[in-house]
Specification:
The protein is mainly β. It contains two helices and eight strands, in the order βαββββαβββ. Helix content is 14%, strand content 44%. It has a four-stranded mixed β-sheet with strand order 1-4-3-2, with helices on one face. Strands 5-8-7-6 form a four-stranded mixed β-sheet, with no helix packed on it. The chain has helices at 16-26, 85-93, and strands at 10-13, 30-35, 40-45, 48-54, 76-80, 98-109, 112-122, 128-139. A hairpin with a 5-residue loop joins strand 7 and strand 8. The radius of gyration is 17 Å and the shape is globular.
Length: 143
């Protein structure tokens, strides 16, 4: 039985097939299920879930403004993955540009710092996707 998360973002996309290629072939998501007749797909990557819906001006989709590229301005979707290296290799094979290069970042999280190896890439419609490999925690260094 497939377990759906309590919160799953749904992205309106220009061309579902191009988006599926990116999310499945490049990032490594699996297709949980699809409604081809509606231009809809539900994807999963180790519990990180996302829904994709192809734009249809006659479908009554929930849009608050016209869709102008890049889509999703002001949001980035952070997705934890076991390691970022295989994803980077797949993206490099198809010459997919990175929005930000791979970096190691440490963020204050209460009384510790949480580390992650991360990079950001844009999907075919311009949504920012931040892939994160967790590096653990370390004590917070007093300023």
């Amino acid at each position: 039985m497939f377990i759906r998360n309590p919160m799953v973002p749904e992205l309106i996309v220009t061309t579902l097939s191009a988006s599926l290629d990116f999310w499945v072939q490049q990032l490594g998501f699996t297709l949980a299920y699809q409604r081809v007749e509606e231009g809809f797909a539900y994807l999963d990557l180790n519990g990180a879930q996302i829904m994709l819906e192809q734009y249809d001006p006659n479908a009554g989709q929930w849009l608050t403004a016209p869709l102008d590229r890049p889509f999703g301005r002001g949001i980035n979707l952070q997705i934890d993955v076991p390691v970022v290296a295989p994803i980077l290799q797949r993206l490099a094979r198809v010459d997919w540009p990175l929005f930000t290069d791979v970096e190691q970042a440490w963020y204050r999280a209460g009384d510790v710092e949480a580390g992650q190896r991360q990079f950001i890439v844009q999907d075919p419609d311009g949504y920012l996707v931040r892939l994160v490999e967790r590096l653990g925690e370390r004590p917070l260094v007093p300023a």
